[in-house]
Specification:
With about 120 residues, the chain is mainly alpha-helical. α3 (about 50-65) crosses α4 (about 70-120). The protein has helices at about 10-20, 20-30, 50-65, 70-120, and strands at about 40, 45. It is elongated and about 65 Å long. The protein has a two-stranded antiparallel ribbon with strand order 1-2. The chain has one domain: Multidrug-efflux Transporter Regulator, Chain: A, Domain 2 (Orthogonal Bundle), CATH 1.10.1660.10.
Length: about 120
């Protein structure tokens, strides 16, 4: 998970977050004009949080919903705010799912320990 207090992220950090190759991020940068990471004098990309959110919207449409690039462009052109809100909701729900799973695991461990104590 990326640290929220960090200002810039490398292309590899962003690629790792979405489990994609850096080349895909460079390709999306060419295809979607709103993905505009800053570049150093040497051309190294530096992604800000808003760049990551833009990538998250494209990722959601293309990788999770299965839209073509043309379809994703059209959807973002028509209803970008809605897409961003949906992506935020999906991310929150995924976070809650992970937290609930961790709680379930902790509960199961406590139950197992309780059973061991009772059966001793």
């Amino acid at each position: 998970m990326l640290k929220p207090e960090k200002i810039f992220y490398s292309i590899q950090e962003v690629a790792d977050k979405f489990n994609v190759n850096p080349s895909l991020l460079r390709y999306w940068e060419k295809e979607f004009s709103f993905i505009k990471p800053a570049k150093t004098i040497k051309g190294t990309r530096q992604y800000k949080q808003e760049d990551i959110e833009a990538i998250r919207a494209v990722y959601h449409l293309v990788k999770e919903r299965g839209l073509t690039l043309a379809g994703a462009k059209q959807k973002l052109k028509e209803k970008k705010e809605n897409v961003v809100k949906i992506v935020e909701i999906v991310n929150r729900l995924n976070t809650i799912k992970v937290e609930l799973s961790a709680l379930e695991t902790a509960f199961d461990e406590m139950k197992k320990q309780e059973d061991e104590i009772v059966n001793s």
